[in-house]
Amino acid sequence: MEPTLLQSGEEVEMLMEAINYTWILVATFLIFFMHAGFAMLEAGQVRSKNVANQLTKNLLTWSVGVTVFFLIGSTVEGLVAGNGFAFQFNAEAVSWMDWLYGAVFAMTAATIVSGAVAGRAKLRAYVTYTFLLAAVIYPVVTGMTWAGGHIESIVGTPFSDFAGGMIVHGMGGIAGLTAAWILGPRMDRYNDDGSVNVIPGHSLTFAVLGTLILAFGWYGFNVGTSAIFTEGSFDGAILGRVALTTTLSMACGAMGAGLVALLKTGKVDTLYVANGLLAGLVGITAIPDASTWWGAILVGTLAGAQLPIVFGLTESIGIDDVCAVFPVHGSAGVLGTLLFPVVATTEYMNELGATRPEAFVAQVTGVVAITVWTVGMTALIWFVFKLAGQARVTPEHERDGLDVSEHGVDTYPEFGQPDVATDGGTDEKIIRTDGGERLDGEREQSERDPHRNAKRSEDESRSSSELRSDGGKPNDGELKMITAIIRPDKLGDVKKGLAEIGAPSLTVTNVSGRGSQPAKKGQWRGEEYTVDLHQKVKIECVVADIPAQDVVEAIGEAANTGEPGDGKIFVMPVEDAYQVRTGKTGQDAV
User: Fold this and answer.
1) What is the rounded average pLDDT of the residues 300-329?
2) Is the pLDDT of residue 453 over 90?
3) Interatomic CA distance for residues 108 and 122, integer angstroms
4) How far apart are CA 178 and CA 165, in angstroms?
5) Quick check: 66 and 139 in contact, CB under 8 A?
6) pTM of the predicted model, to two decimals?
7) Spatial separation of the C-alpha atoms in residues 65 and 316, rounded to whole Å
8) Mean pLDDT for the stretch of residues 471-479
């Protein structure tokens, strides 16, 4: 069948509607994918003991928030906008695509807050706040701006926020700063004299990859919004302008933050560059359809440059904003929104029908209204949590980490080598998960390292020929405690070495210490800190019938790298031992 031309305006309208709604869903999915970026960015900026907690908060922000926004929030938005009382579940199904597009914006605002209160907020408190933000706080903001246009009715000029620079990001950043202020800083963040201790996040790689995922999804925010048909019309010039200004501001935000960090510390800080890229995106989000090309460069550069300065100011007043959500989302959103009359094109201002001073008044009014509402409600909610003792975890739980205390998990558990038998390798064969077989540890090691096997045979021969005063009993018939402090990355080799000599039982503890290994200098968000307590692993092993010297040699051989910081091994006598299960004592207990 040959293709036919559309014969009527009705068919054209149907086609445009199909394309429009398809694109709305594509942009929606891009914005939803930003949650993966938020999860990685925030997880990378917290300590390893709090990673699972941060990931859980991101998952629950979406899950709880989107459900509440559907059942309650959209109704509140309509009431504030003056559209009457109507539940979203009673609406026509086709309108749910528009609702979902609005919902992903709402959840973006909600998830920003989690980065500010990381490391010490109770999960139940955060989830309750997310519920209230999705049900009331955010819907009131959109009800008086996008949905209701109440700012224009007050000042006579529309409040311009194209894709949520202030309504979404500014509001989320301000809410995060307020919650962090009420909650208080993390333990050890500030000294008694007010000086700041740097607490680095656990993965700069996560933070940067999360940033790039967010930047990709941001095109759904800005460019996706401009590609939607409005009243049957579509302006390709606006689409091109939004794509250009979004990209330029993003790039200049990264450079602006990196430049200020360089001037402050003499180094281009990686995390500031990443955060600055996001700040540039936030800064332009309110005005990408109106800004000139040079305006995008100006907004992005200023949004990035203010980041290290504003973050330093929040630190100086004792607010612990873990993921820098206020300088990235809050102050950058305010800055870009207020710069609208400065960088907007003349053509846009003519279409708006307002002078630049009039537009500035409208922008200030909108920023003030959103700020006052957000600060007031957020402070009230978290203050109530604090009074009820439900805002913050206990000091013990905070010290142990929220992964264990709130979720009972360890994000980075230590996995032993699957091919090492826990009984020291005495089985002739061990079945592997790949269906194959391997020889016991000693025979396999012999095949792999004949020189080591030859040395062991020599040691055994020498040991059997020596006469000892105790009649040949290992350790002079006593119990010996071998304590070794080694590099964490050598633990697997040490375990294998101990298993091969028949000493598989051991206790392992994560410790930190200082010795011959030189101190190092680190930098986190432009602030330098000294690392003089290095992460180590302490191994404790009590032996009776296995010579302590063999254990020492096995550990020393496996842990040796030839560099300062390989550790120490100590041998001490043990007075007695008691086995809890059987009641045996002495050597029988070991």
Assistant:
1) 96
2) no
3) 21
4) 18
5) no
6) 0.75
7) 33
8) 72
Q: What is the secondary structure of 59-126 as a DSSP string? A: HHHHHHHHHHIIIIIHHHHHHHHTS----GGGS-GGGHHHHHHHHHHHHHHHHHHHHHSTTTB-HHHH
Q: What is the CA radius of gyration of the chain?
A: 31
Least trusted range by pLDDT, from 31-40, 449-458, 557-566: 449-458
Q: How far is CA 205 from the centre of its chain?
A: 11
- In terms of Cβ atoms closer than 10 Å to its own Cβ (0-12, 13-18, 19+), residue 420 is buried
Supply the mean pLDDT for the chain. Answer: 86
Q: 74 Cβ partners below 8 Å, 6+ apart?
A: 87, 88, 99, 102, 103, 139
| Mean pLDDT, residues 472-477 taken together | 71
Report phi then psi at 538, rounded to 5.
-100, 125
- Smallest CA-to-CA distance from 314 within 214, 143, 180 is with 180
Angle at 355 (CA atoms; ends 353, 360), nearest 5 degrees: 115
Mean pLDDT of 290-313: 97
Token duo for residue 181: 């202020």
For 366-380, what is the mean pLDDT?
Answer: 98
- CA distances to 192, 296, 408, 482, 535 from 511, rounded to whole Å, are 26, 49, 21, 16, 6
Which token pair is 1? 């069948």
Residues 6+ apart with CB under 8 A from 388: none
Phi, psi (deg, nearest 5) at residue 170: -60, -45
Given phi > 0 = left and psi -120 to 50 = alpha, else beta, which region is 156? left
Q: What are the backbone dihedrals phi and psi of residue 381, each rounded to the nearest 5 degrees, phi first?
A: -65, -50
Question: In 286-355, which residue ranges form alpha helices assigned H by DSSP?
Answer: 293-316, 325, 331-338, 340-343, 346-352
CB 571 within 8 A of CB 548: yes
d(CA 406, CA 125): 12
Tokens of 319: 């607010």
**DSSP type of residue 169:** I
- Arithmetic mean of pLDDT, 93-103: 88
Q: Grade residue 314 by pLDDT with cuts at 50, 70 and 90.
A: very high
- Nearest-5° angle of CA 584, CA 585, CA 590? 90
CA distance 166 to 174: 10
Q: What DSSP element (H or E) covers 529?
A: strand 527-531
Tokens 């701006």 sit on residue: 145
Residues 220-229: pLDDT tens digits? 989 887 766 5
359: part of which helix (H) or strand (E)? helix 356-387
519-557 pLDDT, tens digit per residue, is 766 666 666 666 667 888 999 999 988 999 999 999 999
CA atoms of 47 and 496, how far apart (whole Å)? 29
